[in-house]
Amino acid sequence: MKEGTTPQAIIDKYHEAMKQDFDDLSISFDIYHRTSSPLHHETAQEFFTYLSERNELEIKESEQYFDEATKTFLADRFIKGTCPNCNSNRAYGDQCENCGRTLSPDELINPVSTLSGQAPVKKKTSHWYLPLGKHEAFLREWILKEHKDDWRATVVGQCKSWIEGGLQSRAVTRDLDWGIKVPVTDAAGKVLYVWFDAPIGYISATKQWALNNNKDWKPYWYDADTQLVHFIGKDNIVFHCIIFPVMLKLHGNILPVNVPANEFLNLEGDKMSTSRNWKLEMRDYINDFVKPENGGGQCVDMLRYYLTQIAPETKDSEFTWKGYQDAVNSELVSIFGNFVNRTWVLMHKLCSGKVPKLHEAVLEEDDKKIIEEIRAKSNIENLIEAYKFRDALYEVIDLSRKGNQYMQKKEPWIVAKKLAEAPAAQQSIDNTMHLCLQLTANLAIFINPFLPNTAKKMLHLMKVVDKMLDWQNAGSLKLLSVGYSLRAPELLFRKIEDEEIKLQIDKLKDGLVKAAGETQKINTVEEKQPISVKPEIVFDDFAKIDLKVGTIVAAEKVEKADKLLKLSIDLGFETRTIVSGIALHYSPEEIVGKQVTVVTNLAPRKMRGIESNGMILMAEDASGKLHFVKPENAINPGAGVS
Q1: Inter-axis angle of helices 38-53 and 244-251, nearest 10
Q2: Residue 127 burial (CB < 10 Å; 0-12/13-18/19+)?
Q3: pLDDT score recorded for residue 532
Q4: Domains assigned to the chain
Q5: Contact 219, 85 (CB under 8 A)
Q6: Tens digit of pLDDT for each residue in 542-558?
């Protein structure tokens, strides 16, 4: 309406734009389908008719919001008001933009129509409903018993809350002039509600894929051997775990075996919002980073790496541009890329650019350990199959870290200097380089599910075909043949410079200012202020945080991490290990004995292979220097902060 165009024109435009974005970021689909297609309309109408004819739907009269100025019933998104959960005025009739809670229009406080700006009135209308309450016993058995251990706790917990809160009948039709027409006589002006027809799109997409590939679509939705997995965000849990499964069960289809829903990904201290221009656009990243002069495919994989590393699998996480830079420079460049590059440089220098022989008779203990590491693919495999992609990626990077450590212990460049007086030393060099090359080949397989462009570049360096990336090849010590000539070294990744990060942060600030319209209303654009103002909280939110005073009893640098210190903190009742990014501000020696304020109930997180159990609070002054937040006078460790 704002653009003076039609819904069809809008979706035509964005379908093609997003399809191109996905392609440019190496994100592929077996089929990228549309719910506006005739095949989907037909499939959704058949689904509705099947349920209606079997009396699985009920017709009820209800009152819905109506805009008298525009003479139309209002879609949920056309109603705005105050959220009953967080009191934000950024709530719509389907969801709050601030806290993410799923809403219905009746829950909004002081609702207004976004079409006219006037308060809507209630008007009677009749619709078809799905009576979810009739299926409570099935949902309890299926989710709360059968899947209580293999689904994510956050998913089961949200489902439990919905079920125990009482399942209400859910309307499956709506009064709108855009959408899939209700296939019933005298239902003019009524369409299928988007939440009802959208998941049916999985079925219609399967049908289209089958048509395109001369396949039968039915086994994918009726065969018990099929595994259906929904990868979604937490705001869609109710649809994919409760509503759609009820629809599938009534229709005789298979049920999902898992719904590994992610929590929310925030941006620089605040929730993303397109209306406030607080967002990351795929096309912006592509235009700024994914071009030949900037590394092209390198930058695609660098973003894929960071997004996987911070994926909100069990709790909300945060994208920061500084975090992106640190992940690329400190891990991809300094660990993974460094190992591959060192291996290639030394292989050309010490082995004439060819794969040397493995002398099994003189294998040393370090050689045997790295062989065990190469063969232990089950760790990564099991994590991927459990949808723990962050942990799986960590294992891959850690394997390259172990490769660096192995090479550093073996020091083939030092051993090479002794060849004149000890010719047998060549066998040690051969073994080291052979195992490092076989490890690199395995790393290409392991990294491929996460960073496909990197894997392909590694294949190029090794002069091998794509077939080597098949997962069944992982763990092999014979991926590269003895005597095989390999290409000259090339860097897998480039460093991200400070200027690039500053440009992105400045663009983010400028976008926020532009959206607000008045610079003086936004206190996030001052040079030394945080980028964003975090959302308002209530006392109950603060009360969830357990703050205690602790004393640092030991501190040490974390290996190959310029910013991290490993701290041992006495909390009175126990001593905790906490990893903190303060190494650029304090040396380990100067902070032992200092008192700090600790968030003690923060979920554990692995950082550089060390499990960090908590977080210390720091304050940042105008110059960027960090200072400890601590009591005015010394106090016993374990004292609470309130």
Answers
A1: 70
A2: buried
A3: 39
A4: 75-119 (2.20.28.20), 336-473 (1.10.730.10), 545-641 (2.40.50.140)
A5: no
A6: 777 889 999 998 999 88
